[in-house]
Design goal:
Blueprint (H helix, E strand, L loop, with lengths): L6 E4 L6 E3 L11 H10 L2 H9 L4 H11 L4 H9 L5 E4 L3 H9 L5 E6 L6 H7 L9 E3 H4 L6 H11 L6 E5 L2 H9 L3 E4 L3 H11 L4
Amino acid sequence: MPNDINAIIFDIGNVLADWDPRVPLEGLFPQEQIEAFFADSAFDEFDFAMDGDTPLDEARDAFAARHPDHLDMLDTIVESYDKTIVGPVPGMTELVERLAACKSVQIFGLSNWWESTFHLVLEKVPSVHLLQEIVVSGFEGLTKPDPAIYQLAIDRFGVTPSHTLFVDDRAINTQAAAVLGFRTHLFTDATALNEVLEQLGLNG
């Protein structure tokens, strides 16, 4: 991988912030019921709608129409959303701190996240404050993998995709970024990302 990267754009959920929507349900519902909720319900659709700035009542009504038996679990997640943010992803705080001190690279964020809960990320994941600027879907009404939100990030951050590494934990999002010319890394953990950064000469 050529080491001409001068910018890195990080996803936040499960890249910088350890996000687990099961946590608010644990201890309140049987484990098999929790697993059935995520397997059978439209939680992903609800979450994606919220990422795109759909009003909560509207997204909840759509969920309730399809899965009324799961509505109590959905409400528990919404009401205790702060518990879904477990904290920083292991190793990523140190990694971002090193990059923030590196004068040869700029660091940004591009995240699908609800507008109404993004303040919780800022409270629980200090490394997010080190990003120079962040595009959050819930504030923009656009969501990955829509090319429009990547273009918004390009314009707002002033980056050149071919000289920018885009880091995300979902293949559909890295694939969309690659189409626009970004270098990409499908995130699994800090160790693997550190190896990529070492190849690029960007590990502090």
